Amino acid sequence: MATVALKTVRKVYAGGMEAVKGIDLTVPDGALCVLVGPSGCGKSTLLRMIAGLEEISSGTIEIDGRVVNALEPAERDIAMVFQNYALYPHMSVYDNMAYGLRNRGTPKPEIERKVREAARMLELGSLLDRRPRQLSGGQRQRVAMGRAIVRDPKVFLFDEPLSNLDAKLRGQMRVEIRKLQRDLGVTSIYVTHDQLEAMTLADVLVVMNSGRIEQVGAPLDVYEEP
Length: 226
Ligand code: ADP
Ligand code: ADP
Fold this sequence. Notes:
alpha/beta; four-stranded antiparallel beta sheet
C-alpha cells in the first residue's frame, strides 16, 4: 500500500496547451480515487504523468513518500489497466499474465504461483491456455487486471478500463473491480467520464474541469452539494 501525493502538478504540451493547471491531491493508503470529468479536462494526462508515460512540466508526484518525477514507469511500483486491454494477441492468457514477471527475472515457481493465484481470483483458471481472441470482452479485461495484479504494485492506475464493454457487463465488472480493490487493498486511481461509475466506485471522488479540480470528497458529499 502507498499514499500518492500530487503537489502543484502541471502539464503544458508542446504548442502551449495547458492540460493540467497545478493540481494538489493526496490519495490515502488503500483508497480508490476516481477522477471524473468531461472529455478533454485532463484526466488521462494526469494519470499518464503518475504512470511516468508523460513528462511533468512542473510540480512533484510522490508515491509512498518518494518523489517519482524522474523515475521510469518500471521503477514506479505501479500497474496500469488500459481501456484497450493491451494484451499480446499471439500469447496465451498465462503468458500474457507472466510476461512482466519473466522480464524481471522472477523465478519460475513464483511466477506460476502468482499467475495461478490471480487467475483464481479473476475466475480465469480454466482459460489459461486460450489466446485473447478466444475470450469475451469481460474476460480480456480480467486478463488485463490479472497482469496488473501479479506485479504486486503499490498503486493501480485504471484508464477508462470498462468503456469498451456493453452496459450490462460494465455494471458487473464495476462490482468486481470494487471487490478486488477492497480485497487487495491496493491504492488505486481510476479515470472515467461516467458519473455512475465514479459514484459507485470511489472512496475519494475528484471532479475535474479544464485542467483543474472542481470538487473533491466522498461521492455523496460531492454530489449533494447545492
Ligand atoms: P481527458 O482524459 O479528460 O479526456 P486529456 O488529458 O486526454 O483529457 O486531454 C486534456 C487536454 O490536453 C485536451 O485539450 C487535449 O486535446 C490535450 N492533449 C492531450 N494530449 C495531447 C498531446 N499529446 N499534445 C497536445 N495536446 C494534448
Ligand atoms: P518490467 O517488469 O521491467 O516492468 P515489463 O515487460 O512488464 O517489465 O514492462 C515493460 C515496460 O512496460 C515497463 O516500463 C513497465 O513498467 C511497463 N508495463 C508493463 N506492463 C505494465 C502494466 N500493467 N502497467 C504499467 N506498466 C506496465
